[in-house]
# Entry
Amino acid sequence: MTRTDLSELFERSHRRLVCSLLPMARNRDVAEDVAAAAFATALKKRHTFRGESAPATWLTAIAFNEMKNWWRKDRFTPAEPIDPVLSDRWAEPDLLIQILHRKECCLRLRKTLRLIPAIYRRVLVDHFIDGYSTRQIARRRRIPQGTVLSRIFTGKRFLRAAWAA
# Structure
């Protein structure tokens, strides 16, 4: 793999790599740093690329290893006590209540969706959860786009009625 190939790989897959690191890093800056470290490692070790996998897969493996190294290094960093006067200003809000509320809403939505006829549920899930456009849904389901719009409209009515019940 040449330096030019690696720079093209960087331009194509940097954003996707950072997004794949975000769930582990839980911080965009850390994910960016780890991705940069992965590209630096890939640049140093580009001669070891055997071509048995796609270059993006190779780079992702390097990035995950860099993430593991970051976790090991960061986990053992001694923490300094926080000054009680400044602790209120620097403390992050507790997200547990928000997470639990969101999980309860998702569970309720799943239960409510089961009450809706399948013909409407499929279109609602495709559009609002999976993010397909009405044109894509029409092509996938082999139905006119107007039918998709009609099913979304009717499905939303069913969903409102089931949610209120």
Residues 3-25 form the longest helix (23 residues). The mean pLDDT is 81. The two ends are 61 Å apart (CA to CA). The helical segments are 3-25, 28-44, 55-75, 84-90, 96-115, 118-129, 134-141, 145-164.
